Amino acid sequence: MFNLNFKDKYRVVHINNELGNCVVGGAGTYMNEIYKYRPEDMGFVYVNFDDVYNDMHASDFMDQKDVLIMNINEINKLSTIDCDLLVVQFYEFAPYITEEFLRDKKMAYVIHSVPTPEPMPSWDPFGGNNDIRQKFEKLCCMADVLICVSQAEKDKLIKIYPQMKDKTTVVYNGMECQKKYKNSNYMTSRKKFGFIGRTDYRKGILECIKEFVNVDGELLIACPKNDSEYIEKLLIYIHAVGMEDKIRFVGWCTGERKEEFFKSIDALIIPSLYEPFGYVALEGMQYGVPLISSKNGGLGEILEGYKYTYDPYKNGELRSRIEEFINDDKEEVAKQQEILLKRIDEFTVTKMVNSYNELWDKILKEI
Amino acid sequence: MLYKRGSLLKCRDKHVVLMEDFDSDAKGYLILNFWEQCDYKDINVLPVSFAKCENDREYYQLKKDNIIVGRVDEFCLI
């Protein structure tokens, strides 16, 4: 365990398994945004659930202040944390959150994703993963308030646990939006498409590649290698249909490379089967990149009023949207781009942080 | 010859950047490195690492879930 100027007492403490450079997905992006705009009386505990032999460095954690870092084998030290409100971000913390620990605290659970397979099986929402269900249920029951990152995620939660409705609220995620760039590649070219995200079946990359077979264009894939079996599946398909020249993997892009990725493509495809929120859309919108996106989950809410969206479970819809984007006149694409640039204002980090601060005040007043 | 991390190479008309040191005398391939974050600005330059591969069986295993950019002896410094 190491302590980066973590104080003895905080008003609010977030505990998560993603922070700083140790991030995997949307929950990490969220946590970093919350950290950047933290008030003085907010602390952060990062727990490494993965490789306890993996070295961590203070420089991985932004300002190196108000952070306590521990490995999973040190998690019993969680009970020493003194705060008024504990904000839990991940169901794997459930075994370590006890009534005794919460004796003098309130607890909030931010549900970044109801942990079901996609699509959610009708016979058992958790697809037989009883361990996950039990942990998730335990946190939902113990929490004073449940926060979902989109209305879609709340609906999903309430469908499984109608009894949780009264203590569930929605706070949209947000991002520091600087409107860094207005990608206008579409004025001269509409052949270079991009995908960025994890290699995870929920992201719908295989479905995207399948629909791309007959598209006159190139697809750049920027992804980390999270799942070797899934990568293998993608490569088999690409080879079988002879798409090696159309699909180009460009690695796990961060920093300036990620910026260049967004600047170099004509449109970003978001083929996710489901997204609880969909930070990737906001990232694309920051660069003014036209999106061709699934509308399942939070994406449908972020992209309200936007034209190039589709149902990822309907064959042929992605291809139709791509063709529409290719064939629309410049004015129409520009109009859609403006919609994106306006929508991003609804998901600023300021809005998110203010909503959370109001919520924390309300919960703590009830003590 | 020892190539250092960060070196730029060319192979089969592709530009690549080395994500780790490698010895060109070893037998193997350079493969796309997508298990490490890469912030090399030019998106047309691929991040690569060396993978030792000495026979067909190893090549088959390697190719299954990797993107092979080229053989070690196909590279030249730029």
Mind sketching the topology for me?
The complex is a heterodimer of chains A (367) and B (78).
Chain A: E1 2-4, E2 10-16, H1 26-36, E3 42-48, E4 67-71, E5 83-88, E6 106-111, H2 130-142, E7 145-148, H3 151-160, E8 168-170, E9 192-196, H4 205-212, E10 218-222, H5 228-240, E11 247-253, H6 255-264, E12 267-270, H7 279-286, E13 291-294, H8 298-302, E14 309-310, H9 317-327, H10 330-343, H11 349-365
Parallel strand pairs in A: 2-3, 2-5, 3-4, 5-6, 6-7, 7-8, 9-10, 9-12, 10-11, 12-13, 13-14
Antiparallel strand pairs in A: 1-4
Chain B: E1 2-3, E2 8-11, E3 14-18, E4 22-23, E5 28-32, E6 37-38, E7 45-52, H1 56-64, E8 68-71, E9 76-77
Parallel strand pairs in B: 3-7
Antiparallel strand pairs in B: 1-4, 2-3, 2-9, 5-7, 5-8
How is this structure best described in words?
The complex is a heterodimer of chains A (367) and B (78). With 367 residues, chain A is an alpha/beta fold. Chain A has eleven helices and 14 strands. In chain A, the strands form two sheets. An eight-stranded mixed sheet of chain A has the order 1-4-3-2-5-6-7-8, sandwiched between helices. A six-stranded parallel sheet of chain A has the order 11-10-9-12-13-14, sandwiched between helices. Chain A is globular, with a radius of gyration of 21 Å. The model of chain A has no long low-confidence stretch (mean pLDDT 95). Chain B is globular. In chain B, a hairpin with a 2-residue loop joins strand 2 (8-11) and strand 3. The two termini of chain B are 15 Å apart. Chain B has one helix and nine strands. With 78 residues, chain B is mostly beta strands. Chain B has one domain (2-77). Chain A binds chain B through residues 220, 223-225, 228-229, 231-232, 235, 249-261, 264, and chain B through 32-43, 46-47, 63-67.
Key structural traits:
heterodimer; A: 367 residues; alpha/beta; Rossmann fold; 2 domains; six-stranded parallel beta sheet; globular; B: 78 residues; mainly beta; six-stranded mixed beta sheet; two-stranded antiparallel sheet; 1 helix; 12% helix; 44% strand
